[in-house]
């Protein structure tokens, strides 16, 4: 299936082709415009759309946030747009790309379709934007988030060799749980901690996270391990070869260097372990918001981070030394 996105500018494609060929990223020139355009779109949302819209529609809540919380709020807005968009496109390509659906193990490893490449490019553009924000605001997001952005960007960029082009849509479905995670964070900042909306969203978050990251993720990881094993012991004389020359025009050399396997396989194992860890942390965090202590704290005007709500502060009595509590 061809890439449904608009084609790259010929001048831009010619400009990046020599470097891409030198790095063995042969399909990257076909999608460089998608990466750059998505990078610009998400930057515009982060800098020029999320702040004024949030300040207009949620004046008290947004303007009362600290600098760090505002940056995180803006980032969650971008994450919401990205996760919904990429999941819809990944599901759509999975459903309608007939070439991708009928791939054999050789084509799943080294084959290429334009539609799957588009999904990969849009994800790469987001991770490029994510990395830029993590570097710019390292003091806010920390080294851990910087490492995550870097590793994701490297992994998806290497897919333009092409290798594992088939699996780009597969693992993008991890993002199905991200909108629920964003809503959970927004509820805290909107003083809705412990509300029924947060409870229902929390149940959906845990259910979708477990289903798409642990169950679907483990199944997909097994498939990619199996295809990799078959590729390592690939025998062109006994294995059915691909007859789709257009799909295999970039991966006919069947290159699979050891360092590439280490990055991909090691990354999948690490991510699966992290998913189990994150699920436990999410369950604990959601339970904490619905304990009797949390409900009592909310009734007394204490938010999830221990701060006194502005309303309670304004209505509260003076402290023992006669000085009113300072607004957070």
UniProtKB/TrEMBL annotation:
GO annotation terms (biological process): lipid homeostasis
SMART domains registered for this protein in UniProt: TLC (SM00724)
Localization per record: Membrane
Origin: domain of life: Eukaryota
A Pfam cross-reference name: TRAM_LAG1_CLN8
Membrane spanning residue stretches: 35-59, 71-92, 112-133, 140-158, 164-187, 199-219, 256-279
Swiss-Prot/TrEMBL keywords: Membrane, Transmembrane, Transmembrane helix
TLC domain mapped to chain residues: 68-291
Coiled coil: none
One cellular-component annotation, GO: membrane
Region (Disordered): 308-328
PANTHER family: CT120 PROTEIN, TOPOISOMERASE I DAMAGE AFFECTED PROTEIN 4
Protein name per its UniProtKB record: TLC domain-containing protein
């Amino acid at each position: 299936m061809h890439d449904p996105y608009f084609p790259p500018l010929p001048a831009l494609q010619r400009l990046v082709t020599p470097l891409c060929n030198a790095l063995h990223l042969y399909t990257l020139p076909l999608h460089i415009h998608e990466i750059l355009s998505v990078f610009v779109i998400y930057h515009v949302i982060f800098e020029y759309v999320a702040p004024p819209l949030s300040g207009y529609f949620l004046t008290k809540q947004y303007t009362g946030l600290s600098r760090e919380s505002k940056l995180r709020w803006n980032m969650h807005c971008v994450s919401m747009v990205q996760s919904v968009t990429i999941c819809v496109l990944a599901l759509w390509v999975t459903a309608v790309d007939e070439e991708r659906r009928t791939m054999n193990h050789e084509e799943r490893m080294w084959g290429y379709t334009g539609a799957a490449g588009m999904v990969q490019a849009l994800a790469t553009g987001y991770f490029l934007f994510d990395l830029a924000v993590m570097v710019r605001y390292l003091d806010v997001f920390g080294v851990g988030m910087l490492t995550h952005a870097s590793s994701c960007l490297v992994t998806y960029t290497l897919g333009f060799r092409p290798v594992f082009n088939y699996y780009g849509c597969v693992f993008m479905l991890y993002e199905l749980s991200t909108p629920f995670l964003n809503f959970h964070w927004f509820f805290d900042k909107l003083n809705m901690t412990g509300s029924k909306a947060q409870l229902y969203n929390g149940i959906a978050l845990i259910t979708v996270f477990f289903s798409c990251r642990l169950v679907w993720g483990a199944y997909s990881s097994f498939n990619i391990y199996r295809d990799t094993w078959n590729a390592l012991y690939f025998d062109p004389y006994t294995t059915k070869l691909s007859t789709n020359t257009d799909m295999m025009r970039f991966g006919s050399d069947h290159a699979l260097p050891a360092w590439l396997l280490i990055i991909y396989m090691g990354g999948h194992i690490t991510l699966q372990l992290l998913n189990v860890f994150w699920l436990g942390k999410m369950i604990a965090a959601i339970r904490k918001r619905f304990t009797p202590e949390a409900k009592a704290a909310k009734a007394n005007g204490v938010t999830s981070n221990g701060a006194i709500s502005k309303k309670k502060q304004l209505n509260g009595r003076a402290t023992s030394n006669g000085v009113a509590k300072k607004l957070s």
